[in-house]
Amino acid sequence: MKNIAILGSTGSIGKSALDVVSKFPDRFRIVGLAAGRNITLLIKQIEQFRPETVAVSDENTYKTLKSQIPDLKFQNMEILFGTEGISRVAAMPDADIVISSIVGSAGLLPTIAAIKAGKVIALANKETLVMAGDLVMSSVKEYGATLLPVDSEHSAIFQCIKGYEKYSIKKIILTASGGPFAGKTIEELEKVSPESALKHPNWSMGRKITIDSATLMNKGLEVIEAHYLFGLPPEKIDVLIHPQSIVHSIVEFIDGSYIAQLSKPDMKGPIAYALSYPERLYDVVEPIDWESLSGLTFQKPDHRTFPCLSLAYSALKTGGTMPAVLNASNEIAVAAFLDGIIGFNRIPVIIKKVMDSHKLQPADDIGVILEADRWAREDTLKEINK
Ligand code: MG
Q1: For range 296-323, the mean pLDDT
Q2: Centre of ligand 1 from the C-alpha of residue 386, in Å
Q3: What distance in angstroms lies between residue 151's CA and the mean position of ligand 1's atoms?
Q4: The pTM is what?
Q5: Which domains does the chain have, with CATH numbers?
Q6: N or C: which end of the chain has fewer CB within 10 A?
Q7: Ligand 1: distance of its center to the CA of 213 in Å?
Q8: Alpha carbon of 177 to ligand 1 centroid (Å)
């Protein structure tokens, strides 16, 4: 039996993780849940999974939750709030595995808390590695923690390289669906609405990551994530557009062989693999109906129409605080697009301006990284309001 704590239990990954847990009750038990403000769903999860400890993002939500929880049934349950409370769930002694799936930079500090507690971390929050990759990876070593990727592409690579020495990997190729706007021209993208950008063809995901998928920033952040997870330089990480989302990523070996991982696009696959690793569970994802596949196609990404991908490569090559700035600026720009304040094509333009005016610093201190994050948010708002 593995005890599991989920950070971000009411989000898209959190819900899929609880689906997996409820399908295998003899293998997994929920000991901790942390969520934002979706109390209605959190209470349902508490009643179903009976965690020992629960945390919510802020004090008001905490008070509402306390008032709505039927006291007698949950008198032994500990309820906490804030980054500190969520970090306590991340480090709780009873948890064998911590699923880090809080969206965006808010996931950074709780993930670091889990690392410092030496946990096995099923990492879905890519921002942790984008913002503080060097620091996080050295802490993972120092505290004896383990990172298991949950992002589907990184899970695919992780499955494909198992048993191989690093020297034998020539390149990894992250696949991207291309999102709802693949094949469109810059002119066509000028007037697209948030609603059309939120209609992802293959994956069901949260709002922020769905927009990131449409701009290709998601793939850019994943390139940075892959760099840290697998210790490969940017020139050994490629991206291919693969609209069917069946091949989740590919490893090219030095002898000219390729190994890819294939499955239907369903996040329960990579989540279950991280939870059961190194074993596999029965019937997690529906089998592929090979005869009904119309084909598997691959194209080079269109960097001119979707500049976010190049911005991410450039942030990775620049290093220091630049990836944190890219990430923070993107979060603010995406929120402004979702609110109808800026158009789709302005997202990369604004991020580039913020990156260009950033005073680069080495990212070897969490305070410096958080300050770069704060600065980038402020500067992005200024750019938006110009
Ligand atoms: Mg992904």
Answers
A1: 97
A2: 33
A3: 5
A4: 0.95
A5: 2-150 (3.40.50.720), 154-265+295-304 (no CATH), 319-386 (1.10.1740.10)
A6: C
A7: 9
A8: 10
Q: What is the mean pLDDT of residues 334-355?
A: 97
Quote the ligand 1 centre to 366 CA distance (angstroms). 25
How far does the centroid of ligand 1 lie from the alpha carbon of residue 81, in Å?
29
CA of 312 to the centre of ligand 1 (A): 15
Q: What is the pLDDT of residues 30-63, one digit of tens each?
A: 999 999 999 999 999 999 999 999 999 999 999 9
* CA 68 / ligand 1 centre spacing (Å): 36
Helix (H), strand (E), coil (C) string for the chain: CEEEEEECCCCHHHHHHHHHHHHCCCCEEEEEEEECCCHHHHHHHHHHHCCCEEEECCHHHHHHHHHHCCHHHHCCCEEEEHHHHHHHHHCCCCCCEEEECCCHHHHHHHHHHHHHCCCEEEECCCHHHHHHHHHHHHHHHHHCCEEEECCHHHHHHHHHCCCCCHHHEEEEEEEECCHHHCCCCHHHHCCCCHHHHCCCCCCCCCHHHHHHHHHCHHHHHHHHHHHHHHCCCHHHEEEEECCCCCEEEEEEECCCCEEEEECCCCCHHHHHHHHHCCCCCCCCCCCCCHHHCCCCCCECCCCCCCCHHHHHHHHHHHCCCHHHHHHHHHHHHHHHHHCCCCCCCHHHHHHHHHHHCCCCCCCCCHHHHHHHHHHHHHHHHHHHHC
Query: How far away, in angstroms, is 175 Cα from ligand 1 center?
Result: 9
- Output the CA 359–ligand 1 centroid distance in Å: 30
Distance between Cα 58 and ligand 1 center (Å): 28
Percent of the chain predicted with pLDDT > 70: 98
In tens, the pLDDT along 56-107 reads 999 999 999 998 886 656 678 999 999 999 999 999 999 999 999 998 888 9
